[in-house]
Amino acid sequence: MGSLLLDGNHIHLTSFPDPNQPNPPLLLIHGSGGNHRHWGKQIQGLSPIWPCMAVDLPGHGRSEGNPYTTVSEYRDFILSLLDTLSLRCVYLGGHSLGGAITLDFALHYPDRVAGLVLVGTGARLRVTRSILEPLRKGQMVPDLVKWAYAPAVNLDLLQLAQREWAKVPPSTFLADFTACDQWDVMDRLGEIRHPALIICGSEDRLTPIKYSQYLFQHIPDAQLKIVPDAGHMVMIEQPDLVNRIMIDYFQGQRG
What is the mean pLDDT of residues 26-55? Predict the structure, then answer.
């Protein structure tokens, strides 16, 4: 793990890819209030077969700076990151807000993308006032973590998530959710020509299955995988199955 200097801020990455390797690496982008650790099991499971890395967005995890309030700012941050790493083309994977950034990037810089992995996300990510209003007052939403996981999630995992999310300032969640709430590319999905893998937990209460189904129906080259007994944090709740799905996808890309 390490960091690089970008626009005056140290930005954390789990690894630094070789720009000369034959396969474009996978860059994983976390969701609202998240960090690179949300992709820990995927980095571990995918690395033996495909080059991959995860980034902490500005103001998240170990990265310096302030979180942005628009998806377009995050999108152009990813562009600057790729340029700094001398990466001409990558696979982009994103969870929730990270999926919005991934889709927006593919629409604006299609020649920089080889394929997409879209996890627990949609083409529009409206956020309810019951979430936004407490955050505007500097208060955390008490049940936010519970909503993010399946009702039958392991209690130890839920308590760990609660401790981790308690470390994130409400202002960071507010910035991220504001970015989500203002973003909408529902009428542009047909422009995407990249192979897209769409993954959704069957018990996702923040971005329900219909969001992923819409992506599947409107992105021309897409496949949809529904993961049973998982909520919005599907890659943490069911890491082995999500890894298997992603490995199958990338083995197909290699072929």
Answer: 96
